[in-house]
Amino acid sequence: MHQPAATTATSPPIQDAAPIIQVQDLEKWYGKFHVLKGCSLSVNRGEVVVIMGPSGSGKSTFIRTFNALETYQKGRIEIDGIHLTPKMKNVDAIRREVGMVFQQFNLFPHLSVVDNVMLAPMDVRGWKKEKAKAIAAELLERVGILDQAQKYPGQLSWGQQQRVAIARALAMQPKIMLFDEPTSALDPEMVREVLDAIRSLAESGMTMVCVTHEVGFAREVADRIVFMADGLIVETATPEEFFTNPKSDRTQQFLAQILH
Amino acid sequence: MQDFTLTQILTNLLIATKWTIALSAIAFVGGGLVGFLLMLMRISPNPVLKGLSLLYIEFFEATPLIMQLFLMFFGISVVFGLNLSTWTAASIALTTYTSAYLADIWRGSVEAVPRGQWEASRALGLGYFKQLRKVILPQAVRLSIPSTVGFAVQVIKGTSLASVIGFIELTRSASSISNVTFQPFLVYSLAAVIYFCLCFPLSLWSRRLEKQFSFGG
Q: Is residue B1 domain-resident?
């Protein structure tokens, strides 16, 4: 792997075999409330990790620390070989490489669909308009929204908006995609179209961490399922093991509730 | 002593209206520029900038404009030995007054932009000022237009207080004319109509904008 000599002293050489996300003993408090009580996770390149667990277990908070939308007090986060310190020194370098899709889409309502997708590539990556436009068109095509490119987010259905949000995150050509309950705000009939878009992204080899309650999706797409409860990672297993042979009582309780 | 015709009275009032408009414009443009900087300080994460801005805003919002005009006109000459012209004193006092209110209105509009907009733009790697310029402010501006236009009406009416330091604008001129003509009711009625003609279109426009921006926003 090519490493410029000047940077080897400060940043360790990146090996393809090394995990792209490495989180060790992460702890976070909101005031006195201990949200994350020492969570560790490593994700390999191309791996799809689904995080499940009851609400309030810290799932969203956990993945939001990976791109520094949340701070943390103890532990260590390394993304693609860059150490994300609690003081957030390297935050911009990391955010460029980590795309995020939110539960509430958070599209920019004052910009057209295509401008939503082109904004960050032009303003953060410094791409020329033509290049950004070409990439945006390609991505909108991929999520099936190209014919709506000139519309404003408010004119689209929620499912369509979420697919635009996926295209917008992908336009930065991130190495990792984070999904924070991407289908929880959607009407049932729109869930499928969004999950299909995420599934095809997973098949393309994107490294993904996805917080979701969609059991079918998790079973089908995840390489590993991480189960969180009360700020702890209770269990990590393959989907097969997780759904058919869960080890901890807490996991069994949770599954009994969601699987009926 | 000659009698004054209605036309003469009206002509004199309209000449003075020019200065009311000029002072309002100065207050609004100057107040807008200063207010924008104050708003940026007010929303900044830096506690010193935030505190200074808050102090400024609170001071000018919590004291009467007429007091601010007196302080500017008489206070400056007593404390600094500078003699400000009525023009300068009125312009500065109305600018500071306007800036405080606009800063507050605009701060409210920025805060009304959903938190998710900050998060999404941050997650895409936009820096603070790019977030503001490309994502937050365009939305805040839309939200703030109705109340900003509405406040412009307050500024126009506020300029009438500049008459107390001898600034010759519509109100001051009306009082001089009524002293000469002994027709205060007529003269002040005419002045009121002129104020109404300046302010009402703005009020109307602000109400229309409010309706326009109430959906979708």
A: no
Q: What are the pLDDT digits (tens) for A59-78?
A: 999 999 999 999 999 999 99
At residue A106's C-alpha, the angle toward residues A141 and A48, to 5°, is: 65
CB contact under 8 A, A106 and B216: no
> What number is the ipTM of this complex?
0.89
B58 domain-assigned:
yes
Domain that holds residue B117: 6-214
Look up residue A40 and give its two tokens: 């560790």
Segment B32-70, tens digit of pLDDT: 999 999 999 999 999 999 999 999 999 999 999 999 999
In a domain, B57, yes or no: yes
CB within 8 Å: B138 and A67: no
Cα–Cα dist A75/A249, whole Å:
27
Q: What CATH number did the domain enclosing B56 receive?
A: 1.10.3720.10
- Smallest Cα distance from A216 to chain B, Å: 28
A109 and B139 in contact by Cβ < 8 A? yes
Q: Using one digit for the tens of pLDDT, what is the confidence trace for B141-161?
A: 989 988 999 999 999 999 999
Q: Rounded to whole angstroms, how far apart are CA atoms B15 and B208?
A: 30
Residues of B with CB under 8 A from a CB of A: 114, 116-117, 119-127, 130, 134-135, 138-139, 142, 216-217
| Two structure tokens written together for B43 | 């929303």
